[in-house]
Amino acid sequence: MTTWDSYRHRRKVFWILILTYLPGVALAAIAMQRWTGSDDAAMIAAVAWMAAYGVAGWRCGHFPCPQCGRPFFIWRFTYHVWTGQCLHCNLPKWGDSSTRDIAAPSAIDSDDDLECPLCHQAIQADEDTCGHCGWSYFARGG
Fold it and tell me: Which keywords does this chain's UniProt record carry (predicted)?
Protein backbone atom coordinates (compact mmCIF):
# COMPACT_ATOMS: atom_id res chain seq x y z
CA MET A 1 0.00 0.00 0.00
CA THR A 2 1.42 3.39 -0.99
CA THR A 3 1.38 6.37 1.30
CA TRP A 4 -1.48 7.98 -0.61
CA ASP A 5 -3.43 4.71 -0.51
CA SER A 6 -3.12 4.90 3.26
CA TYR A 7 -4.54 8.43 3.20
CA ARG A 8 -7.41 7.34 0.91
CA HIS A 9 -8.23 4.54 3.34
CA ARG A 10 -8.17 6.91 6.34
CA ARG A 11 -10.40 9.39 4.51
CA LYS A 12 -12.82 6.64 3.44
CA VAL A 13 -13.19 5.38 7.02
CA PHE A 14 -13.75 8.97 8.20
CA TRP A 15 -16.55 9.60 5.68
CA ILE A 16 -18.19 6.22 6.28
CA LEU A 17 -18.37 7.01 10.00
CA ILE A 18 -19.92 10.42 9.29
CA LEU A 19 -22.47 9.21 6.76
CA THR A 20 -23.56 6.16 8.75
CA TYR A 21 -23.77 7.84 12.15
CA LEU A 22 -27.55 8.24 12.46
CA PRO A 23 -28.64 4.93 10.91
CA GLY A 24 -25.75 3.07 12.52
CA VAL A 25 -26.43 4.42 16.00
CA ALA A 26 -30.17 3.79 15.62
CA LEU A 27 -29.66 0.17 14.56
CA ALA A 28 -27.01 -0.45 17.21
CA ALA A 29 -29.23 1.11 19.88
CA ILE A 30 -32.22 -1.03 18.88
CA ALA A 31 -30.12 -4.18 18.84
CA MET A 32 -28.43 -3.37 22.16
CA GLN A 33 -31.75 -2.45 23.79
CA ARG A 34 -33.27 -5.77 22.74
CA TRP A 35 -30.18 -7.70 23.80
CA THR A 36 -29.55 -5.95 27.15
CA GLY A 37 -32.96 -4.44 27.92
CA SER A 38 -31.28 -1.14 28.84
CA ASP A 39 -32.58 2.24 27.68
CA ASP A 40 -29.02 3.59 27.85
CA ALA A 41 -28.06 1.59 24.76
CA ALA A 42 -28.55 4.53 22.39
CA MET A 43 -26.22 6.71 24.45
CA ILE A 44 -23.56 4.00 24.58
CA ALA A 45 -23.78 3.45 20.82
CA ALA A 46 -23.64 7.20 20.12
CA VAL A 47 -20.60 7.77 22.35
CA ALA A 48 -18.77 4.80 20.83
CA TRP A 49 -19.52 6.04 17.30
CA MET A 50 -18.37 9.56 18.16
CA ALA A 51 -15.14 8.21 19.65
CA ALA A 52 -14.48 6.23 16.47
CA TYR A 53 -15.25 9.34 14.40
CA GLY A 54 -12.82 11.40 16.51
CA VAL A 55 -10.03 8.87 16.08
CA ALA A 56 -10.65 8.67 12.32
CA GLY A 57 -10.63 12.48 12.04
CA TRP A 58 -7.40 12.71 14.00
CA ARG A 59 -5.79 10.08 11.76
CA CYS A 60 -6.80 12.01 8.63
CA GLY A 61 -5.60 15.33 10.02
CA HIS A 62 -2.26 13.98 11.16
CA PHE A 63 -1.48 12.17 7.91
CA PRO A 64 2.30 12.42 7.42
CA CYS A 65 3.56 13.98 4.21
CA PRO A 66 5.27 11.34 2.03
CA GLN A 67 8.15 13.73 1.37
CA CYS A 68 8.94 15.53 4.64
CA GLY A 69 7.10 13.37 7.20
CA ARG A 70 5.38 16.32 8.88
CA PRO A 71 1.57 16.48 9.14
CA PHE A 72 0.40 17.29 5.60
CA PHE A 73 -2.69 19.30 6.63
CA ILE A 74 -1.52 21.02 9.82
CA TRP A 75 0.26 24.37 10.01
CA ARG A 76 1.02 25.58 13.52
CA PHE A 77 -2.14 24.78 15.44
CA THR A 78 -4.59 24.93 12.54
CA TYR A 79 -5.94 22.24 10.27
CA HIS A 80 -6.26 23.12 6.57
CA VAL A 81 -8.55 20.46 5.15
CA TRP A 82 -8.74 21.88 1.62
CA THR A 83 -5.03 22.47 1.04
CA GLY A 84 -3.66 21.23 -2.27
CA GLN A 85 -0.09 20.84 -1.07
CA CYS A 86 1.91 20.02 2.02
CA LEU A 87 2.05 23.07 4.25
CA HIS A 88 5.69 22.36 5.07
CA CYS A 89 7.43 21.27 1.84
CA ASN A 90 4.86 22.11 -0.91
CA LEU A 91 4.49 18.54 -2.18
CA PRO A 92 1.22 18.57 -4.17
CA LYS A 93 -1.62 16.49 -2.78
CA TRP A 94 -1.47 13.07 -4.47
CA GLY A 95 2.08 13.95 -5.68
CA ASP A 96 4.92 11.45 -5.89
CA SER A 97 7.76 12.46 -3.61
CA SER A 98 10.24 10.23 -5.42
CA THR A 99 9.98 12.14 -8.71
CA ARG A 100 9.42 15.62 -7.30
CA ASP A 101 12.52 17.80 -7.11
CA ILE A 102 11.69 19.92 -4.07
CA ALA A 103 14.22 20.47 -1.39
CA ALA A 104 12.95 19.07 1.87
CA PRO A 105 12.56 21.67 4.58
CA SER A 106 15.52 22.31 6.78
CA ALA A 107 15.43 20.73 10.18
CA ILE A 108 13.77 23.45 12.20
CA ASP A 109 12.55 21.53 15.21
CA SER A 110 12.45 24.45 17.58
CA ASP A 111 9.12 25.86 18.72
CA ASP A 112 10.60 29.34 18.18
CA ASP A 113 11.09 29.06 14.42
CA LEU A 114 8.84 27.72 11.70
CA GLU A 115 9.55 27.37 8.01
CA CYS A 116 7.65 29.07 5.21
CA PRO A 117 6.30 26.34 2.91
CA LEU A 118 6.69 28.63 -0.09
CA CYS A 119 10.23 30.02 0.16
CA HIS A 120 11.59 27.87 3.03
CA GLN A 121 12.76 30.90 5.03
CA ALA A 122 12.45 30.92 8.82
CA ILE A 123 9.30 32.48 10.29
CA GLN A 124 9.28 33.57 13.90
CA ALA A 125 6.63 31.83 16.00
CA ASP A 126 4.92 35.14 16.84
CA GLU A 127 4.61 36.19 13.17
CA ASP A 128 1.61 35.41 10.96
CA THR A 129 3.32 35.98 7.61
CA CYS A 130 6.67 35.28 6.02
CA GLY A 131 8.81 38.43 6.00
CA HIS A 132 10.61 37.24 2.87
CA CYS A 133 7.78 36.34 0.45
CA GLY A 134 4.63 37.53 2.28
CA TRP A 135 3.03 34.07 2.54
CA SER A 136 0.35 33.97 5.24
CA TYR A 137 -1.07 30.84 6.77
CA PHE A 138 -4.37 32.70 7.27
CA ALA A 139 -4.69 32.97 3.48
CA ARG A 140 -4.42 29.18 3.12
CA GLY A 141 -8.19 28.67 3.36
CA GLY A 142 -8.16 27.02 6.77
Answer: Membrane, Transmembrane, Transmembrane helix
